[in-house]
Amino acid sequence: MNIMNRLQGFSALIFLSTFLVFSCSDSVLNNDFKAKRLLVKDRDLFSVVDTIENRELREAVKFLYAYMPLGDICDYDGSLYIEAAKVALSTKTSTEWGPSTPDYLFRHFVLPLRVNNESLDSSRRLINRELMPRLKGLTAEQAILEVNHWCHEYVIYSPSDERTSSPLATMRNGEGRCGEESVFTVSALRAVGIPARQVYTPRWAHTDDNHAWVEAWANGKWHYIGACEPEPLLDMAWFSTSATRALLMHSRVFGKYNGPEEIIEQTETYAEINVTENYAPVSRISLTVTDSLGNSADGAVVEFCIYNYSEFWPALRTISDSQGTAKAIMGRGDILVRAYKGDMFGIVKISPNNDLLLDTVILDKKFGDEFIFESDIVPPSEGSVKREVTPEQILHNKIRLAEEDSIRIKRLRNSPGNSPEIERFRNEIPENKKHIGEIILASLSVKDFKDTPFNVLKDHLVNIEEATTDSYIISPRIGRELLTPWRGYLLNIPGADTLKMNPKEIERLVSSIKVENRYNPQSIPISPAGVWRLGVADSYSRDLFFVALCRTFGVAARLNPVTSIPEYKSEERWIKARFSTSDNADMINSHREGTLSLTYEGGVVEDPKFETHFTVSKVEQNRFKVLSFRNREGFEGTSSLKSVFGEDGKLSLDAGYYLLTSGTRMADGKILTRMQFFNIKTGKSSEVPLILREDKGDLRVLANIGVDESIVERCGRGYFILVFLKFGDEPGNHIFSDIVKYSKEFNDWGRGVLFIYPDSNSLNSAVRKSRDLDIPSNFMFIDDPSGELLNSTAASLGFSEEVPSPLVVVADTFGRVVHFAGGYSIGTGERLIKITRRL
Questions:
Q1: 305 membership: H or E segment, kind and range
Q2: In terms of residue numbers, what domain contains 668?
Q3: Whole-number mean pLDDT of the chain?
Q4: Are strands 685-689 and 593-599 parallel, antiparallel or unpaired?
Q5: What are the tens digits of pLDDT across the range 668-685?
Q6: Residues 6 or more apart from 540 whose CB is under 8 A from it?
C-alpha cells in the first residue's frame, strides 16, 4: 500500500468519530480551562476570555487558553489570540473548503496559532490578506499547492540552531531549517482555513538527523508536502523514500484529541499522535516485561529507543499494563527496548520485520550494575514510492520555482531585515558602557541577530551597572530561549532590595515558584518576567528564571554547559543552585564529584566526535540523560573527545551512575553499537575505554558500472567518487556540506571527487558558491545535461525506475563499485573518508 492510500484510509474513521468527540469536548474544555486558571498566580491573565461577547469567538479563544503552554499565557497579549481566532473563524465562510471542514478538524488543525515550539506572532492576519486573492476559484488540493509555492517565494532551507523562529521572522529572513519551514507552511495553510499539521520524524534510523514536513487536509484526505519545497503534485517530496525507512513519525495536536490515529501520549496541552503507518510498513509490537523469575511486571516504564546521534533515544515511552504488557506501533527495523521498575531495569534488542512482534524484556539489572551491552543495529530497508507525474508538469514546476527564487532574492535585496535594530543598538551604546555593549553583542547567536529587537537589547544595556565586566552577568542569553527584556522588570519585583549580590535569597525566592512540567511538556522557555507573573513554571524555565535573577542583581550565573544544572559563581567557584522543591533533589545531592577518564586507543577515527561517535549519559530518576557538551553557552555543538576531555581524557563529573554509548555506522547501513554502564564515585577516577567497534569485512564489490573515458581523464586510474546532486535543495546542500567538511582528508586521499549536476545553471551556481570555500584541487564539478551518466550508473546499480537523489558512488576505473548510497543521509563525508582509508 503506498503512502497516499494509507493517508486516505483514515478519512472515514475521522468523520465517524466527530460526533462522539463533540458530545463530551465542551465539558472537558471548560474543566481544563478552569483548572489552568486556578493554577497561576496572576489570574487576570485569563480575563481576556471574559471580555468576549460573541459566543463562538469566546469558545474558540477559551480552547486556545485551555491548551496553550504556560508561557503563551503570560508572554503574549491576549489580543493576539482573539485576532487569530477571528481570522480562523472567518475562513469557515470565505473559502471554498471552509463550509465542508468538520468542526473537529477545524478546532485542532485550523484554530491553534501554535504549531510546535516556535515563537508566536501576529502573522495570521497578514498571511490571510496576502494569500486569499491567489486562492480564489481553486479547489482545496490546488490551494495547498499554491500556498506552498507562496511559501517558497519567501523561504528556502538553511540550517540553524534549535530555537524555532516565528513565522514572520522566518519570512523576513528568507530562510529556515526544516522545523521552521514546516511551522511557517502550516501557519500559512491554517491562515486560509486549510487544516494542517507538522509531521516530524524525531530521529531517522538510517542517518544521524531528523526531519519535519507538512500534512494538509483536502476533501476527506490528509496529503503530505515538503514545506517550502513545492512539487507538481501533492504527496510528492524528496523524503518520500526516506520516510519508508523511518521507525517513528508523529505529530502534535493541541487540545484533548480523540482522532483515529494511535495516541502516543496525551498531555495537558497536546496529544502526540503516531502517523508512521501513513508512510512506512509497521509492526505492532507487544512486549511482556518480567522480573528475573519470570513474573510479569506491571507498572514498568518501557522505552522504545532509536539509535541516532550516538545515543539510544527514547522515541516512545509507555507503562506496562496489569499483565506486564507494553505495546507500540513502529517501523520495521532494529529497536532497543529499555524497561525499568523500582531499582531494576532490563535491555533487549528487538527486530520487527512483519506485522506483529511478540517479545520479552527481563528486569535483570540493578541500577548501579556495571556491564557492557553490544548490538548490531540494522535500520529499516528502503521502500519505493510511486507518483505519476508528466514531464510537462515537472517542467512547469521548475519554471515556477525559478520565478519564485527570483522573487525571493529581489525581496531580500530590498529588505534590511533586522539589521536596523542591531545598528540602532550599536549607535546608542554610551561610551561608558562600550564594553557592556560589546559583550551583549558577542553573546548573540546568528539567529538572535536576525530577530532580536532594539528594545530588548536596550533593556539589558540600561539595567547593567557600568562597572560590570563579567559576561555571566552581562549576557542576555542563558539557554535556548527567545531573548526578552527581563532586567528592568525583575529589578522592580517585590523584595528586590534584598536580592542584590545575594544568591541565597535568590534561591529562596525561586523556591517559591511552583514547578508544573505537565502544563509545559515541551519545555518551551517561559520568559523570566512571565515566570514571576505566573508563579508556576516547568523546571527548565524555573532554572532560566534563577539565572536571570542572579544576573539582574549582580551575581554571575549560568546553566552548567555539561549538565544544564543552574549555578552561580562565588569566590571564583561555580556553586550548584539549591531549591526547596522535590525535582531539585538530584541537584542538591550532586555536590559530590569524581573524575571520568576516557581512554581511546584509535582505530575508526583519530578524534571521536560527541554525538557522532559517542555520548555520555547520567542516570537521573531512573532515566538516562545525555550530557550536553557545548561549544557556546546556550547552544549544543558537536565537540570532540579531545576538546571536551582534554589531552589527558579526564573530566570532573558528579558522582553517580553513567552510560557510555558508542557506535560506528557501516557502509552497508548497519550500526555497530556498544553501551558500557559504569559508576563515578566521589573523589575517585573511573577509567572507561571508548571503543568504536569495527567490521573488517564490511566493504565488498557491490556492482559494476561503465566508466566513461572523461572520468578517467579527470581522475586518473584507481578509485574515485561520483556525487550526483541538485543545487539548492536540502539533500543536495546537506551532502555537499558534509563532504566539504572533510576537505583536508579528501585532499590527502588525492583521488578524484566529481560533483555532477543535472544542468549548466546548477553547475554554474555550484561553482560560484565553491569559490568562497577552501576546495581541494581534486574536487571537480561537471554537468550531465542529457542524464546519460546518471541513468547508466543508476541502471547498473539496480535502480530500474526512480533514481534517488543525491546518489553517491565509490568505484574504480575498472567499474567495480565498493559503495553506493542514494537519498538523504547525514554523515556521508565521514563515511566516505572511512571507506577511502580502507581502499
A1: strand 301-308
A2: 593-689
A3: 91
A4: parallel
A5: 678 999 999 999 999 999
A6: 479, 523, 525
